[in-house]
Amino acid sequence: MDSNRKIRVLATKPGLDGHDRGIKVIASAMMDAGMEVIYTGLRQSPEQIVETAIQEDVDVIALSILSGAHDFLFPRIMELLKERGVDNVLVIGGGIIPEEDVPGLKKIGIAEIFGPGTYTDDIVTFIKSNLGR
Amino acid sequence: MFEDRKIREIEEEYGKWSEKTERTLAKRPERKDDFINTSGIPVKRVYTPLDAPDFDYMEDLSFPGEYPFTRGVQPTMYRGRLWTMRQYAGFATAEDTNRRYRFLLGHGQTGLSVAFDLPTQIGYDSDHPLAQGEVGKVGVTIDSMKDMEILFDQIPLDKVSTSMTINAPAAVLLAMYIGVAEKQGVSSKELRGTIQNDILKEYSARGTYIFPPQPSMRIITDIFSFCSQEVPQWNTISISGYHIREAGSTAVQEVAFTLADGIAYVEAAIDAGLDVDDFAPRLSFFFNAHLDFLEEISKFRAARRLWAKIMRERFKAKDPRSMMMRFHTQTAGCTLTARQPKNNIVRVAFQALAAVLGGTQSLHTNSMDEAFCLPGEEAVQIALRTQQLIGYELGVTDTVDPLGGSYFVEALTEEIFERAQNYIDKIDELGGAAAAIERGFIQREIQDSAYRYQREIEKEERVVVGVNKFQTEEKPPKDLLRVDPAVRISQMEGLEQLKSKRDNSKVKGVLGDLKKAAQGKDNLMPVILEAVKAYATLGEICDELRGVFGEYQPVSTIG
Predict the structure, then answer these.
(1) Mean pLDDT for the stretch of residues A112-124
(2) Is residue A111 within 8 angstroms of chain B, CB to CB?
(3) Is residue B236 part of a domain?
(4) B225: domain range?
(5) Structural domain includes residue B430
(6) Is A50 contained in some domain?
(7) Are the Cβ atoms of B451 and A25 closer than 8 angstroms?
(8) Under DSSP, is residue A114 helix (H, G, I), strand (E, B) or coil?
(9) pLDDT band at B55 (very low <50, low <70, confident <90, very high)
């Protein structure tokens, strides 16, 4: 991979949840940090998300859910990524996610879950250090 | 308000005092160089009569219950009756939620407020593929009038008032409510309550839209017109700033964008041939109660004054009730912290007090646990008790608008009024709220404010207690309320059963009638009422309308 290439992030809202304040704030922060951000908007199905991630050749998928549907949608997305042979994308999640759910989500391959109160700078740093850039 | 001679005297003394104070600043500086509130309004060291040189009591304030209603919409306000304590609730199935409603009513809550799950809000039945993972999560799931019958079981609809947070499919849920009432032997004329029915803020801030703006506005004006005859005590819309604020706007933007949406609805109804005084008395509003205490109180007062002026001057309303802004308030969910959640009880209490000092008609107080899950019973009870404390123990309810006449509150009320007015002028130039949304103007304004607010927290210019200051180590909360994923399965079984038992040829016929009505110009409400009574499902009805109206395609405002 060209290490000078900008980090490409797919910022997305799986499911029917309309709370997009957090993901938009994070998208803006990632752009300010020099990343390229593709924001899908609301109501993305797991299939759409995985398809877009492949088409756009992203390094990172940032998922945001505040409806509680992460328990179904996050595993479904990880399953589809596996099926499509995508194993070099950093997947992170955030929203209203009970702490007791976090270990299970990490087990299926989500690198980190960022809850309310997270600093955007911490997310940017996390991405950069994980991608080694 | 003051004689010129007195004003000059104050001016002179103010000058001396300022000089004296400035001299002490070198030794004892203030905590910050600038004091600026969340709307970007600079806050001065002190306010005096000099800040309101043109203040005209009768013009700007008048008396409670009198135009421009700055001091409140009723002459006696809470001396007559306290606000309606209305906790927004709903989760899992209609049975589960019915149990929570009876719990709340049993604890002295005075009105119901229904939270629907996302599939219901977007017009999908529980068996729709996009409903996977979402059924019963953020609210109760409703597929047909059968579920509504269970939801209101043993709750007399002639006694209780019910608010329903439902927008794009509001006509369908209202029809179901009317149908359930009929089954209880209650006439639609006796029903009291509210449907949110505010599609414009769904496009700009909340996201549960279905149809494009034009047909959506038609459904809304059909509801106005139907209800003015058939459900005369119903609030046909709750024009909502709440979600605009939650999405990150400032207090000024909340007032401006909400009232701009209000203007768009009034214009649409007038264009549809309705007389302003026939529908405007049933318009209601919904605001956020955020953290900046005095800014929030001033915001409510400014919003009332601005709406009264808009209705009288712009729309030539004659009936004072058309000019009277009645509103519901909810404390700011976005200010709740996941860390040190018990602090949220205190935040909510202050926010609720601001809403009461601002003259709200009804109030929802958030539960302390909402930054990580649905509210549990204990948390809900504390939230409700907070309202009862304010109502019965603090004494703030004994006189109307107790902060009226405060130099600062009056100056801030005027400042918010003017800044919101300027925004509305700008939106008018863009062609009104719908056009401003289609251009992404309102969404961009909101997201820019949200980003600024977050940066202020991260730079620690804005303190969030327990988050960026005064942190403590703590254990994650346990025993959270969760919705069983099996809810979807049982709901799908119920749907299947319903479809096998109902008169399907009748359903087919009435759905055909609905399609024709949607293609034509007739009011949609009577045929939707027929459809729900025949147990056509919410998804079937919305699909029929999707076929005719199409679906909304949002504009992108990121990047």
Answers:
(1) 95
(2) no
(3) yes
(4) 57-458
(5) yes
(6) yes
(7) yes
(8) strand
(9) confident
Smallest CA–CA distance from A16 into chain B, residue = B118
- For B198-333, strand residue ranges (E) read 234-235, 237-240, 283-289, 327-331
Supply the CATH number for residue A22's domain: 3.40.50.280
Whether residue A2 lies inside any domain: the answer is no
User: Which of chain A's residues have a Cβ under 8 Å away from the Cβ of B451?
Assistant: 24-25, 28-29
Q: Nearest CA to B514 among B492, B495, B533, B494? A: B533
| Closest-CA residue of chain B to A30 | B559
The Cα-based distances of B292 to A30, B31, B37 in angstroms read: 29, 17, 7
| Nearest-by-CA chain A residue for B336 | A116
Is the complex ipTM higher than 0.90? Answer: yes
- Mean pLDDT in residue range B118-123: 98
3-state secondary structure B207-239: CCCCCCHHHHHHHHHHHHHHHHHHCCCEECEEE
Which chain A residues are within 8 Å of B249, Cβ to Cβ? none
DSSP three-state, residue A14: strand
Please report the sign of the dihedral spanned by the C-alpha atoms of residue A44, residue B537, residue B196, residue B198: positive
User: How many structural domains compose chain A?
Assistant: 1
Percent of chain B with pLDDT over 70: 100
Judge whether B549 lies within some domain: no
In a domain, B199, yes or no: yes
Chain B contact for A118, CB < 8 A?
A: no
Please report, to the nearest 10 degrees, the dihedral formed by the alpha carbons of residues B290, B296, B297, B298 taken in order.
-170
Cβ pair B123, B171 in contact under 8 A: no
Chains A & B: contacts with CB separation below 8 Å: 121
Give the model's pLDDT for residue A3.
61
Question: Structurally, how many domains does chain B consist of?
Answer: 2
> pTM of the full predicted structure?
0.96
The verdict on B335 and B224 lying in the same domain is: yes
Asked if residue B146 and residue B69 are part of one domain, the reply reads yes
Co-location of B219 and B295 in the same domain: yes
Domain match, B149 and B292 both: yes
Q: What is the reported pLDDT for B164?
A: 97
Pair type for strands B193-195 and B112-114: unpaired
* Min Cα separation A21/chain B (Å): 5
Mean pLDDT, chain B, integer: 95
What is the sign of the dihedral through the CA atoms of B1, B3, B5 and B6?
A: negative
